[in-house]
Amino acid sequence: MAIYKVTVATGDMVEAGTNNSISITLVGSYGESRQTTVSFLFLPGKERTLSVHCGQDLGPIVLIRLHKWRLFLEDAWFCKDVRVTAPNGTLYRFPCYQWLEGVTTVEVREGSGKKLVDDKLQILKEHRRQELAARQEAYRWKNFAQGWPRCLSVDSIFELDSNIQFSCIRAKNFTGFLIFQGASHFLSGFLLRRTSWNSLDEMRTIFSRTQGRDIG
């Protein structure tokens, strides 16, 4: 019996957690584990740890499969990463950093940054082929007008996968930054100034105050 310790981390952004069922399959060089349920509740910024029991040593863990099942209502989940500790103490890291939506299975490779020539196992070669095909399907190009640069072949950003869209969280952060900068310039006398600047040094003083602050 080989026991693997698995830690699954959820992103810390708003609505990253889920009430849907999440399970995992470990895939090693010598075989793969049974699909094992991780949890039915994931909170933003939290981790879940479990033990995966296998009848034999799986060898080096090369990828994992994350399975998401919708219980009642659709509830997207943002997986940060997964860490797997083998019986011999070897730690394998699987950076995910993506949204899982609906009923889906996502395969994540071990994060050692290997090249194509390093893929000796057929399962890794097939994973790379499928990943390339998925990206080619997601990033199709079209001509908007004669003489214009090519653009994505979609009519709306909502046709794109949620991992490609400019997220609401980023938009809120960007808006908050603009508000902060506007308030800073206002308080510094920049926006309502009615006279000319006395010198470049005076302008540098204003901007060094606003750019040097930490907005959290």
UniProtKB/TrEMBL annotation:
Task: Mention any one GO cellular component term assigned to this protein in its UniProt record.
Answer: cytoplasm
The residues that hold Ca(2+) are G17, D75, A76
InterPro entries in alphabetical order: LipOase, LipOase_C, LipOase_C_sf, LipOase_mml, PLAT/LH2_dom, PLAT/LH2_dom_sf, PLAT_LOX_verte
Regions crossing the membrane: none
GO terms (BP aspect): lipid oxidation
Kindly list the GO molecular function terms attached to this UniProt entry: iron ion binding; isomerase activity; oxidoreductase activity, acting on single donors with incorporation of molecular oxygen, incorporation of two atoms of oxygen
Please indicate which residues carry the site annotation Essential for stabilizing binding to COTL1.
W99
Where, per UniProt, does this protein localize?
A: Cytoplasm
Any matching Pfam family: PLAT
Top-rank taxon: Eukaryota
> Domain Lipoxygenase: where?
114-216
Q: Report the PROSITE patterns cross-referenced here.
A: LIPOXYGENASE_3 (PS51393), PLAT (PS50095)
Domain (PLAT) ranges = 2-114
Give the UniProt keywords, A-Z: Calcium, Cytoplasm, Dioxygenase, Isomerase, Lipid metabolism, Metal-binding, Oxidoreductase
Pathway it acts in? Lipid metabolism
UniProt record similarity statement: Belongs to the lipoxygenase family.
Q: Which PANTHER family would you find in this protein's record? A: LIPOXYGENASE (PTHR11771)
Q: What is this protein called?
A: LOXE3 isomerase
| Species of origin | Helopsaltes ochotensis (Middendorff's grasshopper-warbler)
